[in-house]
Amino acid sequence: MIRAPLDIPFAAEANLRQISSELAEPGWLLEDRLEALRLYGELPPEANQLFTTYLDLRPVRFADVQPYTVTGDAAEVSADLPAGASAFLHVREDRVVGRALSEQARESGVVVDTFANLLRDGGDRQTADLLALAMLKHGPTLPENDKFAQLTRSMASVGVFVHVPAAVTLPGPIVVRWSVGQPGRALISRTLVSLEKRAHASILEEQVESTPADGLQSLWTGTMEVRLSEGATLDVAAQEDFGPKTVSFVNRQATLERDSTLRWALATVGGAFVKSRIDNILAGRGSSVNQVEIGFGGGNQVFDLTSYTRHVAEDTTGDLLSKGVFLDRARGYLKGLIEIEKTARGTDSFLGEFAMLLAKRARSVAIPSLEIDQPDVRRASHSSSVGPIDESQIFYLMSRGLPRDLARKFIVLGFLEPVVARIPLTDAQDRLRELLDRKWPSAESAQAA
Amino acid sequence: MTLTQRELVSNDRSKFDFKDQIVYLTQTKRGLTRDTVEEISRIKGEPEWMRQFRLRAYEHWLKRPMPTWTEGLDRIDYDKIVYYRKPSDREEKSWDDVPEQIKQTFERLGIPEAERQFLAGVGAQYDSEVVYHSVKEELTKLGVVFMGTDQALHEYPEIFQKHFGTVIPPEDNKFSALNSAVWSGGSFVYVPKGVEVPLPLQAYFRINGENTGQFERTLIVVDEGAKVHYIEGCTAPIYATDSLHAAVVEVVALPGSKVRYTTIQNWSNDVYNLVTKRAHAYENATVEWIDANTGSRKTVKYPSIYLRGRGATADIISVAVAGAGQHQDTGAKAVHLAPDTRSRIVSKSVSKDGGRATYRGQLKVAPGATGVVASVRCDALMLDDVSRSDTYPYIDIQEDDTTMSHEATVGRVSQDQIFYLMSRGLTENEATNLIVQGFLEVFTKELPMEYAIEFNRLVKMEMEGALG
Fold it and tell me: b/e per residue, A168-185, with b = 16+ CB within 10 A?
């Protein structure tokens, strides 16, 4: 695979120190950044040899972009809460433009704020300690073999901390929105999420376009570093719909303690290039992760969707499903690795990678891998398929009076529905349906060609 | 090229038997240098193009970095290896030198006395001529060529040069480069147009000291509409004095032909077995690799089929048993380059006693290969929790009307099944053994009967931990 020369001019110690000092960060955070920069420097673009030949960075132009150093509050920060949400944080380019907590969230001690606000002089000591704890206490919160995760960790201009105290149940989702797209600029961000014992919450992450695309690329790199304490449950839904000139790198890592449950529902639709990596670490007995992920690419889009699931403790469950639909000249790489360690007796693990190619020049690569050290499993399997739309399904729908094109479209939308159905807010769900729907005309242009 | 019977009959082998001409050397110096390569070519009296081919391969061997995507290849001491030995020198060891364990294995497998010495590598005296003679006559009548690769280079230069190194060029990978530089021995098969070889060609019967080499090179060319089944290896452990075996096998299946290649690999457990095997299947040809690996310390082998002509079919069955100290890094590749081609890959692996079984495979559908139907199925059985099983499939699809499915499961022997069999009077060991044999049946049923029986016996012994 052809790799773009990995010249990332802004990843330098001087820039790092400048960011850290402008944000008036404590020493431990500076140390954390320096450690990340060291790892970044040592790592190849893909440290896992299973995937090195399938890293496709051709569309990425790091040299095009200049990252923001500091992301602070805008002059006016909106305090409107989206209907049905429990909390809201909106970062637009280098400014926080929206921040709100429901009354219930505030009263029960839920935190949704930027690192800078939490760590500044005169801030709440206790919350600052919680953040430090979340980041440092339990070891790495991002994969230490991932160059791009370490890039983000070293150079982030904004951090978001979400904390839900023990036994708190939030009825509505915490909405975190990222708006980027300023040509030639990069927003580098981290998001830390910690749920204490038996806390129940959901997060909706929205990645959207801020300005219409122009000549130069824009870049967003982000993380979601999750820790679920005993018995906690978290639903994360994300929809990515960046503009056509935006490149994004996202790392999501979750560590699950005893009997905790995490459900991911992730939709990748926009952007020129998306590289997403998820690391699920099932560290506590009886913990469980369910992940559904869709990528719907057209034009020249490249999606690289990777997931790692490590079963460490006994009786853990992993249920992972990736689906891709590719139009035009889009390329999709669905990579996965399930690891069942010696200690993980009673594991139930499934990884499915399914792709639909809807145009002659589209391409799909699936690498569903397994590494197993403990055979005492309930299930350890993977499954993958690639194919065109099933003609018999089209025939059936046409026999019910649908024109052919509509029949095809319904089948594709049905293929992607498992993620749509899991988006927590009706508005957001409708928006995603609309996004997927809008992808369709480009399919027809490809068909005509 | 067509071979007349006269040409075949008139083979005066002694004319090409270089062994008698060698007076100055018995083996090359340890390690690999340009001189070693030149020397091998000189000893063998090869044409200039082959000398150039070897040197080109040697240059590539030097340049190419050691692969690190699988472990342990850097543990081989390449400077300690003798890259070429005059055949007779391999036969100096005596039966007494053969480890007791190997002797016992022969005993238990029921290998005839005469074959044991040969298999143990202590004598080329295995008298297969009686069996082989009648086979040879029949083949000659059909115009089939079946001989050592070195011999074929001299006797069939035209067809040899046309195909040699075209399926697997030296630059393909580090070990195909090594093999291309120092190759010696192996089989050459040519089946003329429309000829169906009625019985399997068994390397086993043709083999002599020369052909058990570490760097054997096999070339099989099957002409239009012809059909052949080739079998290499045998169930008995091959006792090697050298720790590296790097072979290259090239198969050319011309339009409408059918080739089946069966391997039972059972090198002794100190051998690194690094093999590149690939077939080109042209229009409407069918290629089948039936590949089992039970021996060696580490095997790295992914039999591949490039489907180059419309309507070609690929069928690969890969079986691996990894016991104590072993790593079977095996799998299969199907590369679809032409429309309406089909492939099926079935992989079965068993790991036990700390062994590691890895399936590594590739399924690729290139632009232009429309109407492809492909399936991959990988099943792994782990018999205890000190062993390891990995599955690494790569599925790269570049045509929208491809139909591809891939399934993989990993598990252990079900306690329910064991319990049931024990309730029918079997011991636990017998029950496990039966289940493993059943698991591997997809492979066994493809073997000629005597091989199937021996293979089942071998599995049973592996299960009992009787093999070292």
Answer: bebebbbbbbbbbbbbeb
